[in-house]
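Lab notes, practical 5.
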Amino acid sequence: MRQRFEICQRGNHDFVSVIYMSSLIISRWVSYSANKLLDLIPNIGSLSPSNFVWVVRTTSPKHFPGAMQTLQSRAVNYLRASSYLLLHGPTSTFLNHAKFVLSYHVCFSERVAYHGKYFGSADMTTAGLGYQRGRPGNYEEFQSSYRHRRSVGGSDLAYLTEAKDLARHAADLQSSPGYLRAYVREHIEFLDRTARQAEFTLQGTTRGELFLRYVDLQMAQSRTVSVLDELPGRNLTKNLLAESLLKHPAPNPFELEMLDCNDESSAEVASLLGFDEAVLRNMVVQNIAVVNDLSHVLREEYLPRSGQIAEFRDEIEGRFIDRTKKFGDIHQDYLSRIIELAKSHHWPEKAE
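Output from the prediction step:
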């Protein structure tokens, strides 16, 4: 990609390179051909930032213990400054082990597109292999290729649209107070709704239903850890997270993935784990309290300060805002043009 990028840059072409990648965990020291991958990618973008879009999905370091948290934090802090980084996103936590890297180099001047992809996943779980109760499944494919194409097509559309939406989300969280408040309120409503559903289930139900509500509450807690770690105002959110995690440690994402099951299997899984109805009721009651407490943190401690969030930003957030002010709209325009190309299967007419 770097060679093609440099050729287009020297030729003053109308072009863009896009990398969209996802991984449950990311090492700052992951290498390819003896080169650190996370150094190679932003080095390409530094040649012409307006022509380079890098979107990354990964997990909040707060979900992991010990050295794993330290190493994930190192990578996340690096990525915050150099990419559109998502720890939660506008829909739900990326809980599973899905790993993929998609790259596009599209030159509108030469009317040529290069597309590379790598997918890899090996977790045999409900969350990993399919869609369950609205939760995201995995991108289940083993394949790597880098092939020359004259255009992009329908198979690229979902990924390109998602990359565009996620980049916009990351930028708007930092730059639009209205978007930020709406996003936080939506998550508060999700927490309150999850707690109410669990309270209703307590009125009289089966062991399987109690187990499903317990998993839902755990998922809600996990999602909120990711949301708090993604929200702008690091000098505020890091304190709110520290206080919350001291009272309510983050659920283990690997355990959550294993607990997730369909309605028909829930009673069997609960029995296998030794959870009788009395134990499950107690666990649901305890987790309702946790979810309500997290809702309170967002409603009473973060949301009232969201209008003054600039006062709580750290240096990395400032650099990200400066970059998106300069290049964010350009990136969105390029992604829109590629999406339209994928929809139409035809290059736009050249200007006379």
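Observations recorded by the TA: Residues 2-174+314-344 form one domain. The chain has two domains: 2-174+314-344, 176-312.
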